[in-house]
Design a protein that fits this description.
Blueprint: E1 4-10, E2 15-19, H1 20-26, E3 28-31, H2 38-49, E4 54-59, H3 67-71, E5 74-77, H4 82-95, E6 99-102, H5 108-123, E7 133-137, H6 140-143, H7 153-169, E8 175-181, H8 189-192, E9 197-200, H9 206-216, E10 233-238, E11 242-250, H10 274-279, H11 301-309, H12 328-343, H13 353-366, H14 376-386, H15 392-395, H16 398-407, H17 412-426, H18 434-441, H19 446-458, E12 463-466, E13 472-476, E14 481-482
Parallel strand pairs: 3-8, 3-9, 4-6, 4-7, 5-6, 7-8
Antiparallel strand pairs: 1-2, 1-11, 9-10, 10-11, 12-13, 13-14
Helix pairs in contact: 4-5, 5-7, 12-13, 14-17, 16-17, 17-18, 18-19
Pfam families: DUF87
InterPro entries: AAA+_ATPase (IPR003593), ATPase_Atu1862_pred (IPR014588), HerA-like (IPR008571), HerA_central (IPR002789), P-loop_NTPase (IPR027417)
Keywords: ATP-binding, Nucleotide-binding
């Protein structure tokens, strides 16, 4: 079905039409300095296409929440856990609801993590729910930065990976990315290069004008025109807009943003007692003045030398404890028992590490485990090993110790998946199914499990192949062993069998 939406007027006063169905297949990039009218353009696009397609807006400043009153969008406050946002995103795709993800009130790193979790949930939706969705990301340079900034590398990788999936692989899943940025130089090139439609607004820096001209296929000497564009005027190019660069002026909108550009307002008349208003504290400001005591006089040099010349006082040895030393073997046995009890819960695989760690500490106190509690990194390591469920002979083997060493190069959240594959290879057990690997990772998505196998293979940790019956075999070259054939589409082996501790 062909749907043309009116974006405004061209230079000749003709309507500037945008082919919505073509936009869903080819994506859109909007660029313009602050005040050039990017948000106004996005609002016009959203309002005109609202009756025709599901919309999801990643809104860093909360400007687009006003769409809820006029067009029925649901506002999702991003002040939630990443797991909650991922699950909400999956239900949004299932029920085809237009939403605004409001990131207002979060710092930059929290916004990046929240957007990554939300986009990841939409990307990982089941194939049955791959309906077309217009995904609009305002201030995209925050979520796909070209270089690292003040945020952590982990948050940057999560956010950049989610934006790359949206623009590079989202089309087959029905996700059509519309990204807006103040500066092309700040936006990751692999994200910007995936757009086939462009709306370039006013910009002043030479590097941004040059990149805009290159994207539009214009000569460098024509790039100067981007400085002369008025607010709300853009140069359009792309299969959904125009086959040649076309100046357009964006039309009016029905809703307003909560924040607007500053306007000059007359100053108030100066009151006669202006000085009293400024220098006299109000009643709520009245506080007793606390004077700092004067600093003590400096110690004479003779006193300092006398103190240094005094003999050092011998410190008495601490008294012998009345309690016996902690038996490390007994302590490890108690901790392993707590891990078995913790993982016996059917929902343990889908609970966050933070929740499991708190539950673990409570159980340790109940069982009176002696010594200091395990730190969080040590707990994550023990949790990954405990989920494997090895017998003592295999756990003590040199091959398994080498597998543990290899797993240390991976992040905490995927060590368990690698160790399960290594355990199957060491014991020559059938290769775990996708559902089993997804449970170990803490997800219900089989596609995510397959992506983890691809990630391990790209790092050279394992090799995946299929036999003539389409059963999967995973070989670990560093360990010189491989799993027995296993059905990748088989049931979840952990649904009934609970893992035991090492």
């Amino acid at each position: 079905m062909k749907v043309d939406i009116d974006m405004g007027a061209t230079k000749g006063a003709a309507s500037a039409m945008l082919d919505l169905e073509e936009l869903l297949a080819t994506r859109l990039l909007v660029q313009g300095n602050s005040g050039s009218g990017k948000s106004h353009l996005l609002r016009r696009l959203l309002e005109q296409s609202a009756p025709w397609v599901q919309q999801v807006i990643i809104d860093p400043e909360g400007d687009f929440v006003t769409l809820a009153e006029k067009f029925g969008h649901v506002v999702v406050d991003a002040a939630r856990t990443e797991t909650e946002l991922t699950r909400i995103a999956g239900r949004i795709r299932q029920h085809r609801v237009s939403v605004v993800l409001s990131l207002e009130g979060l710092d930059v790193e929290q916004q990046m993590r929240a957007a990554a979790a939300f986009l990841g949930g939409m990307f990982d939706a089941d194939r049955d729910f791959w309906y077309p969705v217009l995904v609009v990301v305002d201030e995209a340079q925050m979520f796909a930065p070209a270089v690292g900034g003040e945020v952590s590398d982990e948050a940057r990788k999560l956010s950049l990976g989610a934006m790359t999936n949206l623009m590079c692989r989202g089309r087959k899943r029905g996700l059509a990315g519309v990204i807006a940025t103040q500066r092309l130089a700040k936006l990751a090139k692999n994200v910007a290069a995936e757009a086939s439609n462009f709306l370039m607004g006013r910009t002043f820096l030479d590097i941004d004008m040059a990149r805009a001209a290159d994207l539009l296929g214009m000569e460098r000497r024509q790039a100067e025109q981007f400085r002369d564009l008025a607010r709300g005027c853009f140069i359009a190019l792309g299969p959904a807009l125009s086959r040649r660069p076309l100046p357009i002026t964006i039309g009016t909108v029905e809703t307003l943003a909560r924040s607007t550009s500053p306007k000059l307002t007359p100053l108030p008349d100066a009151p006669l007692d202006a000085q009293d208003l400024i220098f006299t504290p109000g009643p709520e400001e009245a506080r007793p003045v606390v004077r700092r005591p004067a600093p003590p006089p400096p110690t004479p040099t003779a006193d300092i030398l006398a103190q240094l010349s005094k003999p050092r006082i011998e410190v008495e040895a601490p008294p012998q404890t009345l309690f016996p030393d902690i038996d490390e073997a007994e302590r490890d046995a108690l901790i392993n028992g707590v891990m078995v009890e913790l993982l016996s819960d059917p929902d343990a695989s889908f609970r966050t590490v933070a929740v499991l760690y708190q539950d673990f500490l409570v159980r340790c106190r109940i069982r009176r485990v002696p010594g200091e509690s395990l730190a969080l990194p040590a707990f994550k390591r023990r949790l990954a090993v405990a989920r494997v469920g090895l017998d003592q002979d295999t756990a003590a083997s040199e091959t398994w110790q080498q597998a543990l060493t290899l797993s240390e190069s991976l992040t905490d959240d995927i060590q368990g998946v690698f160790l399960v594959l290594a355990q199957a290879a060491v014991t020559n057990a059938p290769c775990p199914s996708d559902l089993t690997l997804a449970r170990i990772y803490g997800s219900h998505s089989s596609s995510r499990a397959r992506r983890l196998l691809t990630y391990f293979e790209e790092r050279g940790l394992l090799v995946v192949r299929l036999d003539f019956r389409n059963n999967r075999v995973v070989a670990l070259p560093d360990l010189n062993c491989e799993t027995a054939p296993g059905d990748p589409n088989g049931p979840d082996d952990l649904a009934e069998d609970r893992p035991a501790a090492e």
